[in-house]
Amino acid sequence: MNVVELKDVKKYYMLGQTRVDALRGVSLAIGQGEFLAIAGPSGSGKSTMLNMFGCIDLPSEGTVRIDGTETEKMTDKELTRYRRTKISFIFQSFNLIPVLNVYENIEFPLLLQRSISRNERSERVMKAIEEVGLLDRVKNKSMELSGGQRQRVAIARALVTKPLIVLADEPTANLDSETGKRIIELMRHINETEKTTFVFSTHDAHIMKEARRVVRILDGRIVAGDANGEG
Ligand code: ADP
């Protein structure tokens, strides 16, 4: 089953009178449980593509299907709910809330889901903290942590909602290469044990080697690695 499917997706932005073609017809299917890298140089369209997967942005042309449903046929309310419950993002700058501690940062997305009880919330938060190896940092504020530890918190925060897919936009870009490699290894370990689907973007050749499938993008087009897709 495909978690996300892009079919001939084009995305352009208007900068004044000039049209910027960020995606020029991209078709790609991502199956459940994949561990996929979107690789390409800066400006090639990686973030735009992740934003399509995450319904952060809608295509100018073409279709995006999530879990079998075309996003165009979803209402704004359905899209918001979908983003909140089924998709998690990890960013290169971690995007934690500095004044909150590790526990509180990870709990945050669950507070937006009212159907989850207080007990279940704390169980899920503690399990996620354990998975990323931060049990000895539960009460530390995020500003007291190293870059690698912050990205571990971001991974735990991404997992706690039990999403369909985790989208990581250059998750290692602000880390030294050894820490970056360990972060990708952690994501891969979680992918293997929990079967969570991960898609991450990178321009780093060492990091893309850690993926099980690499899709290469250049100037808004897939140039290699779309064998499981339709393009
Ligand atoms: P990458 O993530 O590979 O660095 P992006 O997806 O961020 O690439 O950008 C692809 C192209 O689209 C670039 O030329 C970029 O300048 C342009 N672009 C991205 N977002 C916007 C935007 N909001 N407005 C105008 N141009 C944009």
Radius of gyration: 17 Å
Which range best describes the helical content: under 10%, 10-25%, 25-40%, 40-55%, 55-70% or over 70%? 25-40%
Could you spell the SSE succession in H and E letters? EEEHEEHEHHHEHEHEE
Number of domains: 1
Overall structural class, as computed from helix and strand content, comes to alpha/beta
Low-confidence parts, pLDDT < 50 over ≥5 residues?
none
- Helix tally equals 7
Tell the overall outline.
globular
Task: Tell me about the largest β-sheet.
Answer: 6 strands, mixed
Rounded mean pLDDT is: 93
Instruction: Label the CATH architecture.
Output: 3-Layer(aba) Sandwich
Distance between the termini: 17 Å
List bound small molecules.
Answer: adenosine-5'-diphosphate
What are the key terms here?
single chain; binds adenosine-5'-diphosphate; Rossmann fold; 6-stranded mixed β-sheet; 29% strand; alpha/beta; 7 helices; 231 residues
Topology at a glance:
Blueprint: E1 2-15, E2 18-31, E3 35-39, H1 46-53, E4 61-66, E5 69-70, H2 76-86, E6 87-91, H3 102-111, H4 118-131, H5 147-159, E7 165-169, H6 177-194, E8 197-202, H7 205-208, E9 213-218, E10 221-224
Parallel strand pairs: 3-8, 3-9, 6-7, 7-8
Antiparallel strand pairs: 1-2, 1-4, 4-5, 9-10
Helix pairs in contact: 3-4, 3-5, 4-5, 5-6
The structure holds adenosine-5'-diphosphate.
Can you put this structure into words, describing what you see?
With 231 residues, the protein is α/β, with parallel strands linked by helices. It has one domain (34-47, 75-224): Rossmann fold, CATH 3.40.50. It is built from seven helices and ten strands. It has helices at residues 46-53, 76-86, 102-111, 118-131, 147-159, 177-194, 205-208, and strands at residues 2-15, 18-31, 35-39, 61-66, 69-70, 87-91, 165-169, 197-202, 213-218, 221-224. The strands form two sheets. A six-stranded mixed sheet has the order 6-7-8-3-9-10, with helices on both faces. Strand 1 (2-15) and strand 2 (18-31) form a beta hairpin. Helix 3 (102-111) packs across helix 4. The longest helix is centred in the last third of the chain and has 18 residues, at 177-194. Residues 13, 15, 20, 22, 40, 42-48 line the site of adenosine-5'-diphosphate (ADP).
